[in-house]
């Protein structure tokens, strides 16, 4: 029985669950470690995102025969210039539009309440239960909308402020750009050649998967933001820049992102003009068609080899567990896990085949 594969798998699963149980029982030992990891995880993640975004630029500057330190300096200069442009020209417009949007919410809520009251007064056949439900929703409508809007925009504001406020991110980014190629040799130097080659191949596959997803998804989101801003401006939608940037950020979430991105624009458009939501929907559809048929196939292609149903399932599951952050990081994490499992499975199959050939 010990030679049966199913029995060996069962033993491994039992040992894994026992290890998890022991870690949970000894949480007083691991809590300080988890707190330390949590303290540095966010700067490392932020620097890692910037690393995958700016690494092609650093290689481009190196091709122009600049020393790596000078190339990294050029990257940092461009990042500072980009931040200055955002802070000087874009952020004041966003702040003004966002403040106006928040100030208009009470008036919109009053209009909705008046519309519901008018509809109730002219409907005599509504069951009491329906009336009670409508009254309950109406009485709490303002709190629902304000809490939702404050969560969405508060998250975005907090996320952006933390990303650019943490002092550790530039330091992590500098050393990632400077010594990124030394990571794999450093990890594999302690292993024998066959295992070192195997781990090196795995790490390069993971790097390729993350590069394809992060660079591709961010470029796709940028294209969506530009298309939405152009479309919103053409149809005359108010707060076009704020809603376009919100759509650009939320569109990073695969499949679900576009539906979440267009919701605030439809609500704002409804109070501006009853026909405006139709135009907003048309703008989103056109932007999605351009992105889906022209941008994504050429930028991302099928590098991750993920089925759409798998992506939807993973995003929904991650959202129920980790909220919006879970949705943002679900697909790259899943891609890494899939790459690891696929690599070791292929390694196992190759070893089995070599063993059979050797026996023959």
Feature tags:
87% helix, disordered C terminus, mainly alpha
Q: Can you summarize this structure?
A:
This protein has 360 residues and is mainly alpha-helical. It has helices spanning 5-25, 27-63, 68-121, 128-139, 141-165, 168-179, 183-188, 193-235, 240-250, 256-272, 276-299, 308-359.
SSE map:
Blueprint: H1 5-25, H2 27-63, H3 68-121, H4 128-139, H5 141-165, H6 168-179, H7 183-188, H8 193-235, H9 240-250, H10 256-272, H11 276-299, H12 308-359
Helix pairs in contact: 2-3, 2-6, 3-4, 3-5, 3-6, 8-9, 8-11, 8-12, 9-10, 10-11
Characterize the structure shown.
Helices cover 87% and strands 0% of the residues. It has 12 helices and no strands. α3 crosses α4, α3 runs antiparallel to α5 and α8 runs antiparallel to α9. The protein is globular, with a radius of gyration of 26 Å. The two termini are 25 Å apart.
Characterize the main sheet: none
Quickly count the helices. Answer: 12
Range of strand content:
under 5%
Average of per-residue pLDDT values: 76
Poorly predicted spans: 356-360
Radius of gyration: 26 Å
- Strand-pairing-aware structural class: mainly alpha
Please report the total strand number as a whole number. 0
The rough form would be described as globular
Straight-line distance between termini? 25 Å
- Helices and strands, in N-to-C order? HHHHHHHHHHHH
| Fraction of helical residues | over 70%
């Amino acid at each position: 029985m010990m030679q049966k594969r199913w029995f060996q798998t069962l033993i491994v699963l039992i040992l894994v669950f026992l290890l998890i149980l022991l870690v949970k029982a000894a949480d007083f030992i691991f809590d300080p470690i988890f707190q330390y990891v949590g303290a540095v995880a966010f700067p490392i993640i932020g620097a890692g995102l910037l690393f995958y975004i700016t690494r092609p630029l650093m290689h481009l500057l190196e091709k122009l025969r600049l020393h790596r330190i000078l190339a990294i300096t050029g990257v940092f200069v461009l990042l500072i210039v980009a931040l200055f442009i955002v802070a000087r020209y874009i952020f004041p417009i966003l702040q003004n539009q966002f403040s106006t949007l928040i100030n208009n919410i009470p008036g919109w809520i009053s209009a909705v309440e008046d519309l519901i009251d008018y509809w109730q007064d002219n409907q005599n056949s509504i069951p009491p239960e329906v009336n009670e439900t409508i009254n309950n929703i109406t009485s709490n409508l303002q709190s629902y909308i304000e809490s939702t809007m404050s969560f969405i925009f508060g998250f975005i504001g907090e996320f952006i402020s933390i990303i650019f406020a943490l002092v550790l991110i530039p330091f992590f980014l500098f050393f990632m750009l400077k010594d990124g190629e030394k990571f794999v040799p450093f990890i594999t130097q302690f292993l024998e050649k066959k295992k070192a080659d195997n781990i090196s191949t795995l790490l390069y596959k993971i790097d390729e998967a993350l590069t394809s997803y992060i660079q591709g998804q961010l470029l796709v989101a940028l294209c969506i933001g530009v298309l939405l801003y152009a479309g919103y401006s053409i149809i005359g939608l108010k707060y076009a820049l704020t809603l376009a940037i919100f759509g650009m950020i939320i569109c990073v979430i695969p499949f679900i992102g576009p539906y979440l991105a267009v919701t605030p624009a439809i609500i704002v458009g409804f109070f501006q003009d009853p026909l405006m939501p139709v135009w907003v929907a048309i703008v989103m559809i056109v932007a999605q068609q351009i992105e889906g048929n022209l941008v994504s196939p050429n930028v991302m292609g099928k590098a991750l080899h993920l089925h759409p149903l798998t992506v939807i399932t993973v995003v929904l599951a991650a959202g129920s567990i980790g909220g919006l952050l879970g949705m943002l990081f679900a697909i790259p994490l899943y891609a890494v896990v899939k790459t690891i499992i696929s690599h070791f499975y292929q390694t196992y199959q190759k070893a089995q085949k070599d063993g059979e050939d050797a026996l023959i």
